[in-house]
């Protein structure tokens, strides 16, 4: 068997293109239920002869929804899902990295805008309305938001590996206690939160199911003072335990009585998404500092492209750059350039790290939507090709995400037409007014219409910001992305008493003038562009030095109609 698999993997590796996986069906060329001995390929490769397979899974690593979906699908084939008591991969992973012991950090009220007490009161009110006596919280961002804590256990996301359980009179945090300083422990106790070991959540959920979960008396005494808000009205008749089927793992769900589980989206998801005034102001300030970093990067990159490659630069579109290059040590790559961008961000107040790996992409690489450059194999910057960078940062007061597309040589007319179509969609969506209750799919079309008019489109959602794009395989990619907040539109009328909403841009960085075909813009679009650029100048100027401010002023000069 081992020799067979080794030989098969060798063929997979030599295949063009190389194969990472191979599906081996049990059927023959005619999809027959019963096949000849010659066609029993699955049996030959795996040794499996039956139809009632037992399929193992680590129940900690799959959600309730996923496990139920698999169980349903497997049952149709007389197969069953089996929960393993240990993760079998971990058992053979001899050099598995050890867990990191990163400290739990208190997220101050000056940045969170709401106290733990207020958040718990709202959560317990949700429990009361749904007649649930407790909730299991497994999503790391929800635990961090509820308890106003942060950490660094996950790359690009300031969260702590932790679970939480909240009932009418208990507030529990499950975390590796080595991460909890005496200061943080005191903070938890002051807020009526009992800290328990990370691994204790399994047995505690079983106790929760049988209504035997109790907290330490000292913390229980504090709990009543901290929460208040009439939670004592929750009675013993409430039997349901709330679990989010998309985030709660199957291992914990299996400890509960399935008939007494409320499978609903977590009430914290929406509460966390609706930013309070303090969070909104923090988010705006973070984007201002981030915008300054992006402009500083563009100024630096503009200079480097001219100095190293003889490019015409950000502003000019001369044909035939000098094509000079000092030496191999002077070259710019997708990774060395993105490292410089990270450096500009790291110099800003409240910087804590990147919010995702920077997509720094040249030419055909920019057409790969989630391109991930590697230092040892990434492309060198090219003054004759489009350069797209999609990046962001985590600051204490907010998270940023921005994409800009630039060209340091002479863009083709086709590239300009595509960029302009993307920009027109970007502007159209940003200017949208829409009734309360409108979903994202209904607005998505606004970003695509200018592309559709030319038979173009993009293969991703418009999503969390204004993120239209165009990707031409093997040639170039264009994306423009701003983060927006939703606000009241202040419309003259209010048909149906729905309330009408609009967007407010909080991302600040210029759009490259020489990539825009001005003949394709209507006056309203030019007005928007001039207004946005004017705000860029005013907002970012205090964060830039004299030469950077002069560059930005030139990059945001008004366009004459």
UniProtKB/TrEMBL annotation:
Q: Main EC class of this protein?
A: hydrolase
Q: Tell me yes or no: is Nuclease among this UniProt entry's keywords.
A: no
Q: Which reaction does it catalyse?
A: Release of any N-terminal amino acid, including proline, that is linked to proline, even from a dipeptide or tripeptide
GO molecular function annotation: metal ion binding; metalloaminopeptidase activity
Keywords recorded for this protein, A-Z: Aminopeptidase, Hydrolase, Manganese, Metal-binding, Metalloprotease, Protease
Cofactor(s) it depends on: Mn(2+)
Q: State the superkingdom.
A: Eukaryota
- Ranges for domain Peptidase M24 C-terminal: 499-559
| Pfam family of the protein (one) | Creatinase_N_2
What family is this protein classified in? Belongs to the peptidase M24B family.
Q: What is this protein called?
A: Xaa-Pro aminopeptidase
Q: Which organism is it from?
A: Quercus suber
């Amino acid at each position: 068997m081992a020799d067979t698999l080794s030989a098969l993997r060798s063929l997979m590796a030599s295949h063009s293109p190389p194969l990472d996986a191979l599906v081996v069906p049990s059927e023959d060329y005619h999809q027959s239920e019963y096949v000849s001995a010659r066609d029993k390929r699955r049996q030959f490769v795996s040794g499996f002869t039956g139809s009632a397979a037992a399929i193992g899974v680590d129940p900690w690593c799959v959600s309730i929804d996923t496990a139920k979906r698999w169980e349903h699908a497997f049952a149709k084939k007389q197969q069953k899902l089996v929960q393993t008591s240990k993760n079998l991969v971990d058992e053979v992973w001899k050099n598995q990295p050890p867990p990191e012991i990163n400290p739990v950090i208190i997220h101050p009220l000056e940045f969170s805008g709401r106290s733990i007490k207020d958040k718990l009161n709202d959560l317990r009110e949700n429990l009361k309305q749904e007649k649930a006596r407790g909730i299991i919280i497994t999503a790391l961002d929800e635990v961090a938001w509820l308890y106003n804590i942060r950490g660094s256990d996950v790359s690009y996301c300031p969260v702590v590996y932790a679970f939480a359980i909240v009932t009418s009179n208990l507030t529990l945090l499950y975390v590796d206690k080595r991460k909890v300083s005496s200061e943080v422990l005191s903070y938890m106790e002051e807020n009526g939160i009992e800290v328990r070991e990370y691994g204790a959540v399994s047995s505690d959920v079983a106790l929760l199911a049988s209504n035997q979960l109790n907290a330490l008396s000292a913390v229980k005494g504090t709990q009543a003072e901290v929460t208040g808000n009439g939670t004592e009205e929750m009675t013993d008749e409430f039997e349901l335990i709330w679990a989010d089927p998309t985030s709660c793992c199957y291992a914990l769900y299996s400890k509960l009585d399935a008939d007494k589980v409320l499978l609903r989206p977590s009430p914290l998801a929406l509460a966390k998404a609706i930013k309070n005034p303090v969070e909104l102001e923090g988010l705006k300030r973070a984007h201002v500092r981030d915008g300054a970093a992006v402009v500083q990067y563009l100024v630096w990159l503009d200079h480097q492209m001219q100095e190293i490659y003889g490019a015409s630069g950000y502003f000019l579109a001369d044909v035939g750059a000098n094509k000079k290059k000092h030496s191999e040590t002077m070259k710019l790559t997708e990774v060395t350039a993105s490292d410089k961008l990270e450096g500009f961000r790291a110099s800003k107040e409240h910087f804590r790290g990147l919010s995702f790996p920077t997509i720094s992409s040249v030419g055909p690489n920019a057409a790969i939507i989630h391109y991930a450059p590697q230092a040892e194999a990434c492309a060198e910057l090219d003054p004759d090709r489009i350069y797209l960078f999609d990046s962001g940062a985590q600051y204490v007061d907010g998270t940023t995400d921005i994409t800009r597309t630039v060209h340091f040589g002479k863009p083709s007319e086709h590239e300009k037409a595509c960029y302009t179509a993307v920009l027109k969609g970007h502007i159209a969506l940003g200017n949208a007014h829409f009734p309360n209750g409108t979903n994202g799919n209904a607005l998505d079309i606004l970003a695509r219409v200018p592309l559709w008019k030319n038979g173009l489109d993009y293969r991703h959602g418009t999503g969390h910001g204004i993120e239209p794009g165009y990707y031409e395989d093997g040639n170039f990619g264009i994306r423009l992305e701003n983060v927006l907040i939703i606000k009241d539109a202040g419309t003259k009328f209010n048909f149906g008493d729905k309330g009408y909403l609009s967007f407010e841009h909080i991302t600040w960085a210029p759009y490259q003038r020489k990539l825009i075909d001005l003949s394709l813009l209507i006056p309203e679009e030019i007005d928007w562009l001039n207004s946005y650029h004017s705000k860029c100048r005013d907002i970012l100027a205090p964060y830039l030095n004299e030469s950077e401010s002069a560059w930005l002023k030139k990059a945001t000069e008004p366009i004459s109609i």
